[in-house]
Amino acid sequence: MPSAFVFPTNLTQQERVQPLLEQIDIERMTRFMTKFTSFRNRYYKSRYGKEAGDWLFAYVTELCKDVVANPEKNGMSVSVRQVSHAWGQSSIIVHIEAYDRNKQQQQQQPSTTTGDGVTIIGAHLDSVNLYNPYWGRSPGADDDGSGTTTTIEALTLLIQSGYVPPNPLEFHWYSAEEGGLLGSAKIASLYRNSGVL
């Protein structure tokens, strides 16, 4: 079981973060959000919700394809997967492996964290129209299209920069949050049972 996390008291990564912040692309984010909110809804039990989840998985797979196919060239080890659920809409996970502390050629600075567990950045991909969940329009721009768009942009910048984290880093897009945190609960249970959390 990982040890308790101790939050850092000083900001130590500003030299890495600031250049990335300057590369945030609002037009790219707008294009993504426009497409993501164009589905009739993203209700986790509807065909539209499944289509939206499948589209997001294809988008993330395309975004990561070069680093997935060429880990030696890019210096990153990245995987993309769907977590299937009984209700049809899958959750999505992108895993970025930590750099090997034993390899001298890595240029990363040592981490101030313990090296235990995984850091997760997440959002939920579903939306709901409470009056008509299956057929009603529910673009979900603010719940949680904005969170999905922001995390996609963060992943994009990390992939483009070739960032290799000191500890494993994952991006999660959960299914069925609107149904009662169902997707994230399943993944948390899987991770707890496998010793990740």
Question: In terms of topology, how is this protein built?
Answer:
Layout: H1 14-21, H2 26-36, H3 47-69, H4 71-74, E1 78-83, E2 91-96, E3 119-124, H5 141-161, E4 169-174, H6 182-194
Parallel strand pairs: 3-4
Antiparallel strand pairs: 1-2, 2-4
3D structure, described in words:
With 197 residues, the chain is α+β, with helices and mostly antiparallel strands. The chain has a single domain (15-194), classed as Zn peptidases (Aminopeptidase). 41% of the residues lie in helices and 12% in strands. The chain contains six helices and four strands; from the N terminus they run ααααβββαβα. The chain has helices spanning 14-21, 26-36, 47-69, 71-74, 141-161, 182-194; strands at residues 78-83, 91-96, 119-124, 169-174. The chain has a four-stranded mixed beta sheet, sandwiched between helices. Strand 3 (119-124), helix 5 and strand 4 (169-174) form a beta-alpha-beta unit. The model is unreliable at 104-114 (pLDDT under 50). Its EC number is 3.4.-.-. It comes from Caulochytrium protostelioides. It is an enzyme of class 3 (hydrolase). It holds the Pfam family Peptidase_M28.
